[in-house]
Design brief:
about 210 residues, alpha/beta, six-stranded mixed β-sheet, five-stranded mixed β-sheet, 8 helices, elongated
Amino acid sequence: MINIALPKGRLGEKVYKMLEKAGYACDEFDKDSRKLIFTDEKNGVQYFWVKPSDVPIYVQRGAADVGVAGKDILLEYDADVYEMLDLKIGKCRMAVAAKNGYRDDLSKPLVVATKFVNIAKEFYAGKNRDIDIIKLSGSIELAPILGMSDVIVDIVETGTTLKENDLGVIETILPISARLIVNKAKYKFKNDEIDNMVQNLKKELPDD
């Protein structure tokens, strides 16, 4: 039996469809159900939905053998797991954005609003740029509009929200996509089953 943690929402639903096509269907699976765990003995799988940012914790702690999380979450929380496969879905990018026409004043620390504190710190440390971090949980775009920050570090998908608020991307930090992750200890005992899953999923990956 392979225990699989899926992120709630559209990404998790897309991943389940990939797994279903790869031979890991679960007859009792229902994304709209309030049930927390879905099991299919025949296909040897057990699924459960969790908050996207919690997936690496369930996997790292061994409650799940495998899970799916965005590269952003893996980097931000420095998850101690094996990253087995880029699923090539949930694509977006981590970027720095600011008000249109913004110019950096190098004589003072850059004020950065973000919920990705560790990613922002590492990025600017690599540029030897002093920063002042403001951690926010949502509506990050408001910070530069209201003059609270110089820039934001956030996930950008289409860029529509930025454009509608007179903001624009000034730097891309890294591309983001969903990754299949595995618990390190569980991989030692279930490596054949997990390797088979990886190989079967590779056949279902979307074209670049």
